[in-house]
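Comment thread on ticket #2218

A.B. wrote:
> Attaching the input chain for the structure job we discussed in standup.
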Amino acid sequence: MIKIRILEDDFDAGSEISQLAGLGGGAVASFVGQVRGDGSLSALELEHYPAMTEKALRKIADSADQKWDLHGVTVIHRIGRLQLGEQIVLACTCSDHRQAAIEACSYIMDQLKTVAPFWKKEIMQDGTENWVEERQSDIDAASSWDH
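C.D. wrote:
> Ran it. Output below, let me know if you need it in another format.
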């Protein structure tokens, strides 16, 4: 089972994790990303191109499912204006074994940071806005799975 959702509204991470746990695997791994309060950041605004984004998220989830023996994958990503502390993303995997679930979850997050077509804009407390550039550390993390 692969579940992909792109939402403006918040999600219930506990409910999503419980749904995957109900698939009967012995391990569920999850990651919830939040808007962090870096210095003078006031909010984060995420934009996307719907047709491209859902296709890219599905491709990432399918790839994880092929690399590891998974019972299920859930990927939820929010768009729109998000305030400090709000949830941005949930990556969750279910497998018979801990290592597969954890590695697949980590892989999904690394791919989301570099492959998924989201554009992030930081809105600062002084009203200035900055588009977030891709970081070399994210590129390196994503490419490490190719070996």
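A.B. wrote:
> Thanks. Noting for the ticket: The first helix runs from residue 13 to 21.
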